[in-house]
Amino acid sequence: MELQLKRIREAQGIKQSEMARMVSALIGKEIKVRTYGSWERCEVTMDLEQAYYCALALGCTIDEIAGRQPRPRVFADPDQQQLNEQYEELNATGRRKAVGSVEDIHANPANLKSEQPGRQPVPGDPRRETKSA
After folding, report:
1. Are 58 and 78 within one domain?
2. CA 3 – CA 51 distance, rounded (Å)
3. What is the DSSP string of 69-118?
4. What is the signed CA dihedral for 41, 89, 22, 127, rounded to 10 degrees?
5. Residues of the chain with pLDDT under 70
6. For 67-102, what is each residue's pLDDT tens digit?
7. CB 84 within 8 A of CB 75
8. pTM for the full model?
9. Do 55 and 94 share a domain, yes or no?
10. Are 78 and 45 members of one domain?
11. Is 126 in the same domain as 103?
């Protein structure tokens, strides 16, 4: 098995130092750049939790990091399929922008199928609160 961690990270335009910070934030403890680099070079084996957080930070699966081909994601709704395919082609910056755009659309109750126009957001639910300019 040949890890694809470096290839996936570089394809998304993320530096090792940025990746180490992202994984540190997710794990809740500092991961040094040297440690992260040793994972990429297969000098030190990641444990399952570390692999999970790397996959989460990169928006991929542990299987992809391990070099296994991902199963194609198929959605019944053609619009959802198109969104997913376009999202998969984005780098980390593009993905953050896409999620931000969807959050903005989602913040408007008129766009939600489960809410009636004019209903107020649920207090404390950040997904339902509108962003201030």
Report:
1. no
2. 11
3. PPPPP--SSHHHHHHHHHHHT--HHHHHHHHHHHHHHHTSGGG-TTS-TT
4. -160
5. 1, 70, 115-133
6. 887 677 788 999 999 998 899 889 889 999 999 999
7. yes
8. 0.54
9. no
10. no
11. yes
